[in-house]
Write a structure and sequence with these properties.
By secondary structure, the chain is of the alpha+beta class. It has two domains: 10-183 and 330-337, Ribosomal Protein S5, domain 2, CATH 3.30.230; 186-326, GHMP kinase, C-terminal domain (Alpha-Beta Plaits). It is built from nine helices and 14 strands. The mean pLDDT is 93.
């Protein structure tokens, strides 16, 4: 019996996104459904590029999908996660072909810089197109969410809101753009405060927090009001209002995790020093506001005109290893179908 024909390979790029109103916890782990909504900013030139090919010859020596990361075979845990995601795409496309996945990142992996958001957004788009599908953005967002909850947001550029949804099948747990990447001339300055992977992954930390933190119900209850406030701030281009809710959401999320049993603490001395720098900048009249994801790094929202000064102040902070200045960016997109 002849082998099924190979599909056309596709290459997609996607930017990482940083949540300003945080996503922390799931209402359904199997479908990766968030327990609460979130609001984020997708970033330019900081993410993943992924090429996917479905073909009989794509299988590795073990007969399974071949997953390459940075030119080398991916570590087994990442490869298995990608293979499970590819099974979802094969089911949707009704194909039965092995795949080769080639991914490279411009963002550190598993370091609290949302690499999985970019990675699975790029994989969702490249794999679906390589499988012969042309999914509308909402369906693509739902597919990306199955790989990483935050990946649903990276399908879109600029400011993006993710709905927790209410349906059991997760069909309404999707993202939508509320302002594009050209709508507001702001920047996100990133202070890198540690090297290497974080001690506990986001998924495990979310699960432990939901199970053991006495603050978790209060955290969930606080999110809808924060979303309303952040959405209004984006539409009014009100940096102080958006920054205030971003800081509140971040500190509440980390307080909730800190109260888990055993406690979860991502911050290090440089994290605290960077927060002090942000407060000092604001005291001197610079509109600068921090947020921190599940990791030790500090991201600072500011106007484009203040980005150089903010980055310099962060770079001079004890313990800060590197600073980046990132602009709002577009959503996931195909760059090659060959």
């Amino acid at each position: 019996m002849p082998s099924p024909p190979a599909q056309k390979p596709a290459t997609a790029v996607a930017g990482t996104n940083i949540a300003l109103v945080k996503y922390w916890g799931k209402r359904d782990a199997a479908l990766n459904l968030p327990a609460a909504g979130s609001l984020s900013l997708t970033l330019a030139d900081f993410g993943s590029e992924t090429t996917v090919s479905f073909a009989p010859a794509a299988a590795g020596a073990d007969g399974r999908d071949r997953v390459l990361f940075g030119g080398e075979p991916a570590e087994p845990r990442f490869a298995a996660r990608a293979q499970r995601f590819l099974d979802l795409v094969r089911d949707l496309a009704r194909i039965d072909l092995p795949a080769e996945v080639v991914t490279r990142n411009t963002v550190p992996t598993a370091a609290g810089l949302a690499s999985s958001a970019a990675g699975f957004a790029a994989l969702a788009l490249a794999a679906s197109r390589a499988a012969g599908l042309d999914l509308p953005p909402t369906e693509l967002s739902a597919l990306a969410r199955r790989g990483s909850g935050s990946a649903a947001r990276s399908i879109f550029g600029g400011f993006v809101e993710m709905s927790a949804g209410t349906r059991a099948d997760g069909s309404d747990a999707v993202a939508q753009q509320i302002a594009d990447e050209k709508s507001w001339n702001i920047r996100l300055c990133v202070a890198i405060t540690a090297a290497g992977e974080k001690a506990i992954g986001s998924t495990a930390a979310m699960d432990a927090t939901a199970r053991t933190s006495p603050y978790y119900p209060a955290w969930l209850a606080s999110v809808p009001a924060d979303l309303d406030e952040a959405r209004a701030a984006v539409r009014q281009r009100d940096l102080d209002r958006l920054g205030t809710v971003a800081e509140r959401s971040a500190t509440r999320m980390h307080a909730c995790a800190l109260a888990a049993d055993p406690h979860i603490l991502y911050w290090n001395p440089a994290t605290l020093a960077a927060l002090a720098t942000v407060r000092e900048l604001r005291a001197r009249g610079t509109e600068a506001y921090f947020t921190i994801d599940a990791g030790p790094h500090v991201k600072v929202l500011c106007a484009k005109t203040d980005a150089t000064a903010v980055s310099a102040a962060l770079a001079a902070t004890p313990g800060v290893m590197q600073t980046l200045v990132l602009a709002p960016g577009p959503g996931a997109r195909i760059v090659s179908e060959d």
